[in-house]
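Hi R.,

Here's the chain you asked about this morning:
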Amino acid sequence: MDIKDERIAEAVRQTLIIRPPRQLLDTFGVTNIGYYMVTSPTYAEIDKKNNETVIRKGRVIANRPRVVTPYYLSRLEGFSSDARQYFDSLIHQHGANTPGIYYTYRNEPGELNIVSDNMQTVVERLNAEIEHNRDPLMAIIKGKDDMWDVSLLKFIHQITSHSMKGNISQMQSRGLLNIDPLGVPMEARLGIEEMFSKVTSGELEPKELKDELDRWGLFEEYQDRFFGLFNRTGIR
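And the predicted structure, written out as tokens:
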């Protein structure tokens, strides 16, 4: 393990989810999770008398979970060669069309404040504020100051793990994990229909729809309908 790996491992060990959200990730919609990340400032390691706490406020936007297959993942862009080898191993172990749940997130950092109070006092005050506001999607995370984003990733991993069983159960109950003869999950077919509607209404660029069809290997099946969009809507 190199120095960087050791620092990441230490940041993970020091991360504590003091107050998790009271609700899990929505199976069929976007979940907007607020968080307070509390840390001791980095310079506190030098100045032992320091009694300050850093408070980072932000939001994690969890997009609607999607049903994907190893084949689909292997065709996504932006992954390293190591990641692609992992996707290939999934195909080898489970088959190209085994359904799985794919979560995507966006972090929106907000305010950063340094207050002259110890961490316990700050956490008690933040807890009282959340209780007063009755916000079921607000969390408090204790992290490591110079690697607070690693602490945030641990939080995201934890809430994903806790939500996955319920998300899968709800999808199964609606038949969304069912795979058609071409190896495409029902949820993916419904998502493509939604994308067609959004392109028609101008909410989505045609290229995004085209890319999604290519990832599933379905463009040939949908191409007449896709090109028909340009005739009906005047898209250029």
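DSSP finds eight helices and seven strands in the chain.

Let me know if you need anything else.
M.
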